[in-house]
Task: inverse folding
């Protein structure tokens, strides 16, 4: 198994969170990013180490609807585990080395 660096893991989480919020609206993405900066002095890159920051800001801004946003982010993360393309890639590599 390949070890992914902490920096790449942070970048992936940053991109997933930002992409999900932007898919809701640019205003949503900007609001959450600005509030993270104002309240915690950070941006989406710190969400991996401090998910509570993101949850706090989402809860403040969206109340009970924050759960829907979090579930959408979780769905995006779940899709990273194994995708058909990755599975196909793995299968092809396995056949090559067999």
Result:
């Amino acid at each position: 198994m390949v070890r992914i660096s902490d920096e790449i893991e942070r970048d992936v989480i940053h991109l997933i969170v930002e992409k999900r919020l932007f898919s809701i609206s640019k205003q949503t993405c900007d609001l959450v990013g600005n509030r993270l900066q104002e309240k915690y002095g950070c941006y989406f890159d710190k969400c991996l180490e401090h998910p509570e920051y993101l949850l706090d800001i989402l809860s403040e801004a969206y109340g009970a609807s924050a759960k829907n946003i979090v579930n959408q982010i979780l769905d995006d993360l779940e899709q990273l585990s194994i995708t058909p393309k990755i599975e196909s890639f793995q299968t092809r590599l396995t056949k090559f080395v067999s």
Remarks:
- The radius of gyration is 16 Å.
- The helical segments are 6-24, 26-40, 51-62, 66-78, 84-97.
- The chain has one domain: 6-97.
- The mean pLDDT is 81.
